Amino acid sequence: MSAEDEKPELATAPAPLPEVDSESRWTTTRLELWSYYLYYIGNSGLSGFNFGPSQFQNLLFLAGYDPTQAPFTAPCGDNGCVLPYLGRVRDINSIVLMTNGISFAIQAVLLLMIGAWADYGTSRPNITIFFTILAVAVSFAWLGVEDASQWRSGVALYILGREDTIFLFTQILIGSLTFWTAAFPGLARDLPEVKASVAEVKSGQKTVAEHTLLTSLSRNRISNISFTISSLGEIVVLAIMVGILKAVKSDESTANNTKAFSILIAFSGAVWLVCAVPWFLFEKRRPGLNLPPGTSLLTIGFKQTYAALRECLRLKQTFLYLVFYFLMGDVLNTTVTVIGTLQNSVVAYSTLQLTLLLIVGIVAQGLGIYLFWLVQKRFKISTKAMLSFNVFWIIILTIWGLIGVHTDKFGFKHVWEIWLYQAFYGLMVCPWYAYSQTMISEVSPLPQMFLFFALFSVVGKTSAFIGPFVSSAIITAANNNDNMPFAFLFGLGVFSTVFLYFVDVDKSRVECEAFIRAEEKRKAFEPSAHFASAYTGDLEVKMEA
């Protein structure tokens, strides 16, 4: 039965006809959906996550000195590279990890304050716009950093750049990345086929279980396709970057190479701005919750975070996934950071080499995520099962690095390994970024989706804050053995899978429904008619035990 056939039945539902007409305004269109996909081409992290860290480490290497010689008398070489930082002389890889930790700590504090804003009223697009413009400005600011003597400026920009990249994140990642990412459950809820499915449930033609399967697959489709489209767009951007590198003759001198890094960061920021404009224009300002009496935007984030933590024992499945996300997020974030420091050393900070490596990695990423989605769609596999399969390959990645603790023949120590790593990471590991986010939506209540995404982001940033510091300490204690952190990461990764195993998604949906009802009775918020239940968003179609 078509959606058009269902309209008369919708009109006879308890809600009056004007409300139905009002709801139709929020239907997700192809234009809005493709604007959402396009945004992530720009906000995929080329500036703050890829070239920013490489330029930062490049500046440290050029400014550092050989630890076997008197300070600042011999340049960095095969004997290592150190600089004074935060009260003591440290290996530059240790400095990068510590700076990551500081950056992530700042993100966590900010997210606690602003994380819930997007659940209220219609202001979320303004938040995304603000953080996007701020991130682009930081990208352009790198143009002023071209010399090793400016490495301390690089520290500040690196922290800001990381913060804005994950301030979308995821991330946040998290201002702009978190607010962008958390929009996809609402987009899925308003897809025409999902709305038609709700009508079929009301008319008795479909079960609630069948509808939740469609909703889950729709969320996975949007999440996976957005990452796939982003990968295709990034390939085009990186191809242009190769032309830029040839034009500035980046490989002819160290000065040219350093300047090229800053140019690429600024260019990727410009691409981000161009790709963001359609989303700014075509995103529908769907109504959120109303602020409860006696609260303001300055306090609501902390109050709602406290409420979510207070109720965590009632949201048992959400709590289990939160613990898993904390641990596995720490494993993956720190693993990628450690491998990144090893990679930069192996390819000698060559902008051209790093760009070509990125092209390989992103081609593999797009292919990997899309293949994961095709298999899931074909066999209607659950989000949890797909995520579990993906986690296995993340643990394999830590084993790869662990082998290099006692040998120089393997463990991200050769150029051929770096090329292989990029392909492996894209094909088997990158689906994490899609499925881990979709899984958050599966265990979080729809009316407060942005709060819970922010909460998960804070947890993820907290873990990312801890991991780099632990890894930095391990490297220092192991006489600057840069592979030693993989021992810690492997053990932590295996341990974290226990929590994912016990997550029951069906139970979580029931728990989230009860949580929303309890919060309404407590007058923690005034509900929105558009997001009136925990999973379907419809007041008449609720998840029950």
Automatic annotation (TrEMBL):
Recorded superkingdom: Eukaryota
What is this entry's stated membrane topology?
A: Multi-pass membrane protein
Kindly state which keywords UniProt assigns to this record, in alphabetical order: Amino-acid transport, Autophagy, Membrane, Transmembrane, Transmembrane helix, Transport, Vacuole
Known InterPro entries for this protein? Atg22-like, ATG22/LtaA_families, MFS_trans_sf
Looking up PANTHER family in the UniProt record yields:
AUTOPHAGY-RELATED PROTEIN, AUTOPHAGY-RELATED PROTEIN 22
Regarding protein family, the annotation reads: Belongs to the ATG22 family.
Q: What is this protein called?
A: Autophagy-related protein
Task: State the organism of origin.
Answer: Mycena metata
